[in-house]
Amino acid sequence: MIPKGLKGIIATETLISHIDGEKGQLYYRGHEIREITNRFTFEEVAFLLWFGVFPNAEQLYELQNQLKNNRNLPENIRVIIDHLPKSMDLMAVIRTAISAEGGNFNYAWKPTVPQAIRLTALLPTIIAYRTRQLAGKMFVPPQPALDHIENYLYMITGEVPLPAHVKALGTYMILTLEHGMNASTFSARVTVSTESDLVSAITSAIGTMKGPLHGGAPSGVIELLNELASVGETEKVIKEKITRGEKLMGFGHRVYKTRDPRAMALKAKLMELVGEDEWLDLAIDAEDTVIKLLEQFKPGRSLYTNVEYYAAAIMKAINMEPELFTPTFTASRIVGWTAHVIEQSQNNTIYRPESEYIGPFFKNG
Fold this sequence. Notes:
- This protein has 16 helices and three strands.
- The chain is an all-alpha fold.
- The mean pLDDT is 89.
């Protein structure tokens, strides 16, 4: 039998990341994810994924400057976004804007790290520009004094963000930079395997991320946290939901058969912020109760919190609307996509799988 969706089929070799779903482990370039989130910034981990090593002080300074120098929104992209229908969803806007970027920089084959840095720097500005435009607010230009995560929040809110919010969102974005041969990463590698350019590969990835089965949304988790906050009785609410057969959003993962290491790393970082934000406190307090009840009512299912659970708490804490979840996920995952695209180009073979015909054959006459 042919595995549906190529499940379990190894399509390539990679040096970028490793996932062990049975043990609940995730590695970037051989470094365990919890070690990374404890010690390094977004920019340092992006450097690791692109170059294979962590940067020294001079290399980090250069990367930070390159990101800052590529943040400004080109005029042609600004004009295009201004003329897009207001009903167009944000992921579709991002896809269109990134496609339009193709003529603003040298994106010729082969893809390079400077190309990757430019797209990574530009994406948060695209998101912020459209978000404030739809809200009827003035665009907040990038602030050169702020690092990547701080600047993203600043452009969206118009205010320098709280350190607790920068730490929380920064940890989340590090944890979602890369996650193996997922659907969007596969799309990007397939596209560039034709010797197409980086912009085309990333446009493919964004189109794949846009689908609800991949990029998803935290609305279900936020609704759960809202309900727990309003009722104030976590155990009662969860018992009723389990009894009615409702799916508890933010619990369980198709890859990890034990605890999601990203959720564990995110929780560990958020534990440092206990008492600094009520929504983060609620998420941390509710988790143990929910897991205990899931073990009681669904024994053997190993349903633990996934990264989306704490991501939703972070989004709620920093007042990000649900519409910004998948775009923010995209703003981090673009680092992993570009790393994979560059890796694919270095030892390239075009992807050309076969299909098995299962229809009828007809004789002439």
